[in-house]
Amino acid sequence: MKHENLRFLAQNGFPVPKFTVSSDPSDFDETFSDAEFFAVRSSFSSEDREKASFAGQYDTFLNVPRKNVKSKIEAVLQSRNNSNVASYKQAKNICENETGCVIIQEMIFSDFSGVIFTANPVGILNEMVIVAGRGLGDNVVDDKINTVSYFYNTDDDICCASGQDGSCSLDEEIIKKLLKTAKDIQKLYNRHMDIEYAVKNQDIYILQARPITTLSLESPIILDNSNIVESYPGVSLLLTQDFVGEVYYEIFKSCVLRISKDPVLVEAMDEYLRYMTDAANWRIYYRISSWYAVLHLLPFDKKIISIWQQMLGVSNLSVTLPQKLKVSKRTKFTVLKSFIYYLFKTPSLMEELNNSFFPKYKSYMQKIEKSSTIDELLDIYEYIKLDVLKDWDITLINDMYAFIFTALSGKKNKELISKIKNLESMKPVESIRELCCISKEFGFDSDEYKKAAKKHIEAYGDRCLSELKLETKTYRTNPELLDIYIKSQAGDAISSFSHCPKTKNIFVKKAKTGIENREISRMNRSRLYGAARSIFLKIGQILKNEGKIESPDDVFYLHISDLRSASCLCFLVEQRKKQADFYKQVPNYSRLIFDKRIVNREGQIEHSQILHKKDMLFGIGTSWGKVTGEVLVIDEPEDTIDTRGKILVTKSTDPGWVLLIQNSIGIIAEKGSLLSHTAIISRELEKPAVVNVKDCTAILKTGDVVLLDADTGTVSIKR
To answer: Of 623, 684, 682, which is closest to residue 650 (Cα–Cα)?
Structure first.
C-alpha cells in the first residue's frame, strides 16, 4: 500500500515529507507535524499492485488546512464506495473487500512537480520519462496546466525535451538529480517505478512510488544499431526498410538451413529469422534478440557470442535474452560438423560466390533495362532474391570466419591484419586517383576523361556514401556527381597505398583472407543494391508517367506492397515526407528496448542534449598513432564536405567514407570494432582511429580541439 511504500522510502534515506496514517478521523494524531497545510490521500489494499494501480480512482485532497483534515480523512475513506472504483475493480477482476487507511502528509508548496517513470509506460524499457509542470502535482496529473516531458535514453545518456506552449523548463542539474533519484528508487525496488515528486527551492521530495502496471517484461524487443549503422546512418526511407528486411530474412533462412540441414528447425525459427532487422523512428536496427537466437545454435555458443559482440561492438545487455530453442541431438551434431567444415571450406566457397556474381549482375542489369512494366520489374526483383540470396548466406559464415580468426590473431597484431594486397575497398580510391590525374592532364571535357569516368561508373558506380540506402543518389544514377567530386579533389594528391610484408602467423593469414573476401562481397552487395535501386527508380518513373507520384524519387517513400496500387499515391507520399522530416529530429539512439511492440516517437522534439559531458573519452584503437587537431562532426555525410586537416567524428562509416577519410588526419566513431569499415579503411589509409567511443557525436562539437591517441584508444578534449 502507499503508506508502506512511503515508509520504506523514508527508511532508506529518500526525501519523503513527514506523514502519518489514519483509519478513522477520530484517531488522527495532529502532533506528528507543526505544518498548517496537508495532503490527504488514500492508501487502500487494492492500490499500487503490479497489475492494477488504481491511480486517480480514490479521492485526494491537497492544501488542506489543519482544521479540515479530519473531514477530508472521512471523505477519502468514503471514496472507496465510488462507482468508478467498482467499475475499475470489475475491469481488473478484483473481488476482495477493501481495507486500508488514509495518508496525511505535510504539504509541499512546490515550484514545480510531476511524475517520473523509470521506463516509458508506452513500452520503451530503456527510456525514462520526466513530466513536469508549475505548481502542485494535481495540476499535472489532471492536465490542468501545460507540461514539459523529458525522455532520457539510459543507454545513450541522451535526453530530449517535448514541451507544450507556456510550460516550464528544468535546468540540467535538476534533471540529473531527478534521474538519479529515480534510478536509486528503481534499484531499491528492483522493478520499474512510477514516482510522484515535487521540487521546492531546488530540493526534491518524493510523494509517492508504485510499480508501473502497463509493462509485461516477458519478451523484450531489443534493437541495436551496432555495425548496421555503418550501412544505414540516420533515417532510411520505407522502401529501403522493406528491402533490407527481406534481404536479411532470406539470407539468414538460407544460412540456418545450410548449417543445420533441418527444415523443421528453420520453420520453428521463422519468427526470429523474419525480424533479423527492424526499424524504429525510421532508422534501421538489428533485432538483437533474434541474432542471439541464431547464435545459440552454434557450438561453443557462449564463446562465439563473446567474439561476435567484440567484433560488432555490441555491449552487454541488461535484459533477459531469448532462451535457447530446443534442438534435437541429431541437428546439434549436424551443426557441429558444419561448423568444423566451414572453418576450412569458407575461403573456397567465397571465391566461387565472388567469381559467379558479376556475370549474374550483368544479366540482371540487362533485364532491368529491357523491362517496361511494374509487374516485369517486380518479377525481376523476386528472381534476383531467389537467384542470389540463396547462396549469399555464405557471406555470413565468412563474417564469422573473419571474426574468429581476427580474435585468435590477438589485438597486438592489428597492424598485421591491415595492408591487404588489392583490397576491394581500395580499388575505387585508386580509380578516383587515376581520374584526378587524367582530369589534370587532359581536362574534364576530354575523351580520355569521359572514357575513364564511364569505366569507373561501370565498375564502382554504386560505391558511395550511404550506398545501401536505396534512396541515395549514386554515381551510377547521377553521373554528374562523380564530376563534381573529381573537381573538388583536382588540386589534391590522393595517396597510393603500400603493403606490409607477409606474415607466418596462421591466424593472421586466415583473418586477412576472411577480411579480403568480406570486402569483395560487400562491393558486390553494393552492386546488388544498385540493381534493386535501378528497379525501383524505373518503377518510380512508370508511376510518375501514370500520374500516381510527382517524381520518380517519391517511390522510396512507398512500401513494396504499395507499388502495384491502382490509386494516386501523391497524398500518401506527402504524408510520409512529413514523417521523415520529423524523424530526422529524433536522436539516433544506439539501442532501444521495447516491451511488447515497437513504439515510434510522436510529438515535437524541441531539443536533445547529452547529460554527462567528459574531458576524456575512451574507445578501441583500431589503427595506430596519435594526432591533435580540430574535429568535424558529420551527421549526414556528403561528398562535398571538406575534410582536409580535420579529425572526423561520426556515428560510424560505410565503405563510401573512404573518399572522406583519405583527406582527414584521423577519425573517431561511436560504433565499430577491429573489423568495422572505420577500422579497415583507417588502417589501410594509415589514419589514427578510435571507435566504440560512447556519445562522441553528442559530446564533441565541430571546432573542438582534441588529442586522438589510437595507441591507447583515448580522446582528450582540449578545453
So the answer is: 682
User: CB neighbours of 344 closer than 8 A, spacing ≥ 6?
Assistant: none
Element at 715 (helix H, strand E) = strand 714-718
- Phi/psi at 197 (nearest 5 deg)? -140, 165
Q: Quick one: angle between helices 394-409 and 301-312, nearest 10?
A: 90
**Tens of pLDDT, residues 291-317:** 888 888 888 888 888 877 877 777 766
Sign of CA dihedral 372, 375, 381, 386: negative
Question: Which of 650, 655, 652, 428 minimizes the C-alpha distance to 529?
Answer: 655
- Flag residues of the chain having pLDDT under 70: 1, 45-56, 82-98, 137-144, 165-166, 316-323, 411-421, 490-503, 606-607, 609-610, 612-613, 639, 719
CA angle 660, 665, 671 (to 5 degrees): 65
> Among candidates 157, 183, 169, 175, which has minimal Cα distance to 614?
157
| Residue 295 near residue 307, CB atoms below 8 Å | no
pLDDT at 96 (0 to 100): 61
If we measure between CA atoms, which residue out of 345, 99, 392 comes closest to residue 251?
A: 392
Q: Which amino acid is at 342?
A: Y
Maximum CA extent, the chain: 102
The long-range contacts involving 549-552, CB below 8 angstroms and separated by at least 24 positions, are: 549/573
Strands 37-44 and 61-65 come out as antiparallel
pLDDT at 140: 62
Amino acid 505: pLDDT? 80
Q: If we measure between CA atoms, which residue out of 97, 201, 174, 657 comes closest to residue 425?
A: 657
Cell digits of residue 106: 505535510
Cell of 68: 479540515
Mapped onto helix, strand or coil, the DSSP state of residue 531 is helix
CA 212 vs. chain centroid, Å, equals 25
